[in-house]
């Protein structure tokens, strides 16, 4: 029987409930099939202490966890540098925040090669390998260069921007060429797939062969949209469990005279938090019936705090929330309850269920699982309303939410008012359709449709090596290197 080998930057014990969309989805995939989960151990060793990353393996039920340590220099260049200071901002259309510094690309390639070398020693000929996310784009090319003939799929959890944005990365051609070392490349949305298709035809002279297959660089890759979902049954069970219900009743009681709005995310600039706070302020200004009533609970869990752009965002949020509360708060009411803390996963569903309106308004998001969790947690007899950014991947599936343009502060405030005023019948009708959508394309569907597609890829011309030249540096960077 073939074994599933999942590769992602971080690895978690699939028997424990993990926080974070990716960890939950991958744990589900591995719990269903058994197999191996490979990635970084989370440990940073002092530079030069071990030479290269030590491999650790441990058994977690049917799943082998195999992890590698990283040196400080490799971690900083690969994770903080290239992954999160180049790929994350550019893939979220934020060229203004990207830092194309020298050295990052070398570390990115070094770590991908290290992972490939360590993984090669653990692979069996029939293993199916499923690589996840932007940290590991060149992994298959490195594996192929070492003689790996296994079937390899890649799933990108974040958006793929249009050609003109992607092309701002000095190594864009190298990155896209690396994708052709996979048998199947999966995106979150049709929009991402279109961006890929346009890029490869315009920049790589690729031929579209039909059935989502593209030929370039002497290779054929299949690409598709596989929108990630949640485990709806598991989330509903969590809602009904004691912690979920305790939270729900506490919130209902505490806010019995108020209208509760909710936002939940990592504190990340892609999530549109300052714009959301401004829309909420406009709501209070334009619709004074919400004064002393509408209360926004905003959970912003700490994320990548050692990076400058995140520290700036933290300061901006503190200042915005402080000024809105200062301007509008009363002795017995504060408009915003802002928490820069992580909330236990078992409590989240109760919070979702108690909210009248969820504000899920990213400026750009691969999918956004919070939107789906909110729908799953609702009481279908008295459901809350989802206000969703049209720029979240989830908007392609969830058009029965109230869709907004988060850059349009006034427009979003009006839609929030519409959500607060929505009659019960309309709330029920919208919720029924949304629940149907998240059930039809849940996390089990995602895993199965991706792995079925990967198993069905035509592998006849996929076993040759893909040659990855050294990634080009932009001229300035090369000059710095030479200097
Ligand atoms: C990436 C892509 C894509 C959030 N705060 C807390 C907490 N969470 C949980 C949520 C949800 C997960 O984290 C967030 O998932 P999202 O999908 O909303 O966003 P990203 O973390 O940016 O995930 C995204 C996803 O990968 C999957 O492919 O959808 O587009 O950016 O599950 O509930 N969980 C706990 N406490 C918190 O304070 N326990």
Protein described:
By secondary structure, the protein is α/β, with parallel strands linked by helices. The protein is built from 17 helices and 16 strands. Helix 8 packs across helix 12 and helix 10 packs across helix 14. The longest helix is centred in the middle third of the chain and has 21 residues. Bound molecules: GDP-alpha-D-glucose. The site of GDP-alpha-D-glucose has 24 residues, from helix 1, strand 11, strand 12 and helix 13.
The tally of domains stands at 2
CATH architecture of the largest domain: 3-Layer(aba) Sandwich
| Radius of gyration of CA atoms, rounded to a whole number | 23 Å
CATH class group of the largest domain: Alpha Beta
Poorly predicted runs of 5 or more residues: 461-465, 474-483
Which sheet architecture does the biggest sheet show? 10 strands, mixed
Measured between the Cα atoms of the first and last residue, the distance is 54 Å
Strand order of the largest sheet: 3-4-2-1-5-6-7-10-9-8
Q: Going by CATH, what is the homologous superfamily of the largest domain?
A: Glycogen Phosphorylase B
CATH topology of the largest domain: Rossmann fold
Small-molecule binders here are: GDP-alpha-D-glucose
Provide mean pLDDT, rounded: 91
Approximately how much beta-strand content do the residues carry?
15-25%
Structural shape: globular
Helix content bin: 40-55%
Structural class: alpha/beta
Count of individual beta strands? 16
Number of helices: 17
């Amino acid at each position: 029987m073939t074994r599933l080998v999942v590769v992602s930057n971080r690895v978690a014990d699939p028997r424990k409930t993990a926080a974070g969309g990716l960890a939950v989805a991958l744990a589900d995939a591995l719990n269903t099939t058994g197999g191996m989960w490979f990635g970084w151990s989370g440990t940073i060793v002092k530079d030069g202490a071990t030479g290269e990353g030590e491999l650790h393996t441990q058994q977690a039920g049917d799943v082998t966890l195999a992890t590698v340590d990283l040196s400080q220099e490799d971690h900083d260049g690969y994770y903080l540098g290239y992954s999160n200071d180049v790929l994350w901002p550019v893939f979220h259309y934020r060229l203004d925040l990207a830092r194309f510094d020298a050295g990052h690309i070398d570390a990115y390639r070094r770590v991908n090669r290290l992972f490939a070398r360590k993984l090669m020693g653990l692979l069996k000929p029939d293993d199916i390998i499923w690589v996840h996310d932007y940290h590991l784009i060149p992994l298959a090319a490195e594996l192929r260069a070492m003689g790996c003939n296994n079937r390899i799929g890649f799933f990108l959890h974040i958006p793929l921007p249009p050609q003109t944005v992607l092309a701002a990365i000095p190594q864009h051609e190298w990155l896209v060429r690396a994708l052709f070392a996979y048998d199947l490349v999966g995106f979150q949305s049709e929009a991402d797939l279109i961006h890929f298709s346009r890029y490869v035809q315009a920049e790589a002279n690729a031929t579209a062969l039909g059935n989502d297959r593209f030929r370039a660089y002497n290779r054929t890759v299949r690409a598709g949209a596989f929108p990630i979902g949640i485990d709806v049954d598991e989330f509903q069970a969590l809602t009904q469990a004691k912690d979920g219900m305790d939270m729900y009743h506490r919130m209902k009681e505490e806010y019995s005279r108020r209208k509760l709005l909710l936002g939940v995310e990592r504190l990340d600039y892609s999530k549109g938090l300052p714009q959301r706070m401004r829309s909420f302020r406009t709501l209070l200004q334009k619709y004074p019936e919400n004064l002393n009533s509408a209360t926004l609970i905003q959970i912003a869990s700490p994320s990548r705090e050692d990076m400058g752009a995140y520290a700036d965002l933290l300061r901006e949020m503190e200042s915005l929330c402080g000024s809105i509360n200062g301007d509008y708060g009363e002795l017995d009411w504060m408009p915003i309850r802002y928490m820069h803390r992580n909330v236990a996963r078992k409590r989240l569903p109760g919070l979702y269920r108690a909210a009248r309106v969820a504000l899920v308004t990213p400026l750009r998001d691969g999918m956004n699982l919070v939107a789906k969790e909110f729908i799953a947690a609702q009481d279908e007899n008295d459901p809350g309303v989802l206000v969703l950014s049209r720029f979240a991947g989830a908007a392609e599936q969830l058009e029965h939410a109230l869709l907004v343009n988060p850059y349009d502060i006034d427009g979003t405030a009006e839609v929030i008012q519409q959500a607060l005023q929505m009659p019960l019948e309309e709330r029920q009708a919208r919720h029924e359709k949304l629940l149907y959508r998240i059930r039809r394309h849940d996390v089990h569907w995602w895993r199965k449709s991706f792995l079925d597609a990967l198993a069905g890829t035509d592998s006849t011309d996929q076993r040759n090596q893909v040659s990855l030249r050294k990634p080009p540096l932009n001229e300035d960077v090369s000059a710095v290197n030479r200097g």
